[in-house]
Automatic annotation (TrEMBL):
This is Probable tRNA sulfurtransferase. The lineage of its organism: Bacteria, Bacillati, Bacillota, Bacilli, Lactobacillales. GO terms for cellular component: cytosol. Residues 54-159 form the THUMP domain. Keywords: ATP-binding, Cytoplasm, Nucleotide-binding, RNA-binding, Thiamine biosynthesis, Transferase, tRNA-binding. It is found in: Cytoplasm. Catalyzes the ATP-dependent transfer of a sulfur to tRNA to produce 4-thiouridine in position 8 of tRNAs, which functions as a near-UV photosensor. Also catalyzes the transfer of sulfur to the sulfur carrier protein ThiS, forming ThiS-thiocarboxylate. This is a step in the synthesis of thiazole, in the thiamine biosynthesis pathway. The sulfur is donated as persulfide by IscS.
Length: 399
């Protein structure tokens, strides 16, 4: 039994949010073929039909828009059957000194007993059947939740917190500039938590960046896919641009001009794919290219919103989230991406916008952008896909 979080506040739009949550849940649980998922106005029910409940709940805990959920038993609207089921469930968890309470909710107000009568009836029956157990209303060891609905009565004694947030896709689509580092996957996670459907934009520069670096970015994408089901991965060839910028732009402005190209390309991709914003993993002051002056010089190339979910976090806060979403160990694997190759020894921390424009004006900007756009490849990545299996083994040996 799945309970919704913020969706309860959505008024007339609530159905749209629930429909999207149901779609995302089915996508995220696509590998469990026997499940039957039914999303109603106030609850979602997932019938296991023999699937591994622990595995299903682990994946369900990653779906944004879910407040909490409970493994439940559904019985007919028969009082005797409910009493027997309640006792059986509590006996499974009972040890000496255990306390309990019954918490009944009744969405079907035509049922013969109200909530207080049901609490009293079931509580008395449990006390008669398990004499050693005690009632405790505040913080009992076991809370047996009983939900009376028109299609049956649901009993549960465990509540597991969900991911919260909003269903991915209800806040529109954005492009995430995905490097191979720690910060950008965390930024993507936080964007999805607020309902944004993200597509990954990854720049690669062969032969300077390896196939392993590209696969690392794809596997990072697969780590985020359970939150929505699948994510589009857009790989953009960047070799010509990086070589040209390195050759023709002064060293101090190399990073600034390079990132202006990245942002231009991402904005064009967003325009073609109905994206409404660009997300990245920039944290203010963390590196030379992430000062306010740098952001002004780089943002100059687009009018799209450039959103930075981790902008005010320190590194430890970002690492904590990366560990929580299981991207950290992958992010620190030592495969260089195009953000780290050709890095100048002394990049400008306060680049001037007018100088960045002047240096860039000497380049064939339109031609390089067009050729990069022509070389784009798009793949769909689902959860649990592996791209670095062999490399992980060899990396473990190095450690």
């Amino acid at each position: 039994m799945v309970r919704y979080g913020e969706l309860s506040t959505k008024g007339k739009n609530r159905k749209n949010f629930i429909d999207r949550l149901a779609f995302n849940t089915r996508e995220s649980l696509h590998s469990f073929s026997k499940l039957i998922i039914k999303a109603n106005r106030d609850r979602m029910h997932i019938q296991l039909n023999g699937e591994d409940s622990a595995a299903v709940m682990k994946r369900l805990g990653q779906v944004f828009g879910i407040q909490n959920f409970s493994p439940s038993v559904k019985v007919k609207r028969d009082i005797e059957l409910v009493k027997q089921t309640a006792v059986a469930m509590i006996k499974e968890q009972f040890t000496e000194g255990t306390t309990f309470k019954i918490n009944t909710r009744r969405s079907d107000h035509d049922f013969e007993l109200d909530t207080n009568e049901m609490n009293d009836l079931l509580g008395g029956y449990v006390l008669d059947s398990i004499p050693e157990i005690k009632v405790q209303m505040k913080k009992p060891d076991i809370t047996l939740r009983v939900e009376i609905r028109s299609n049956g009565i649901f009993l549960s004694s465990q509540t597991i917190n969900g991911a919260g947030g909003l269903p991915v896709g209800t806040a529109g689509k954005g492009m995430l500039m995905l490097s191979g580092g720690i910060d950008s996957p965390v930024a993507g996670y936080l964007a999805m938590k607020r309902g944004v459907a993200i597509e990954m934009v990854h720049f690669f520069s062969p032969p300077y960046t390896s196939e392993q670096a590209l696969n690392k970015a794809k596997e990072l994408t697969s780590k985020l896919a359970p939150f929505v089901g699948s994510i589009k991965f857009i790989q953009v060839p960047f070799t010509e641009i990086q070589e040209t910028v390195k050759h023709d732009v002064p060293s101090g402005y190399l990073m600034t001009v390079q990132r202006r190209f990245m942002l231009r390309l991402t904005a064009l991709i967003a325009q073609k794919r109905d994206g409404l914003a660009i997300f990245n993993g920039e944290a203010l002051g963390q590196v030379a290219s992430q000062t306010l002056e740098s952001m002004v010089a780089i943002n100059d190339v687009t009018t799209l919103p450039v959103l930075r979910p981790v902008v005010s976090m320190d590194k430890n806060e970002i690492i904590e989230i990366a560990q929580k979403i299981d991207t950290f160990d992958l992010s620190i694997m030592p495969f260089e991406d195009c953000c780290t190759i050709f890095a100048p020894p002394a990049p400008k921390t306060r680049p001037r916008l007018d100088k960045a424009r002047i240096y860039e004006s000497r380049l064939d900007v339109d031609g390089m952008i067009e050729r990069a756009m022509d070389g784009i490849e798009i793949t769909e990545i689902k959860s649990d896909q592996k791209f670095l299996a062999e490399t992980n083994d060899s990396f473990a040996e190095l450690l």
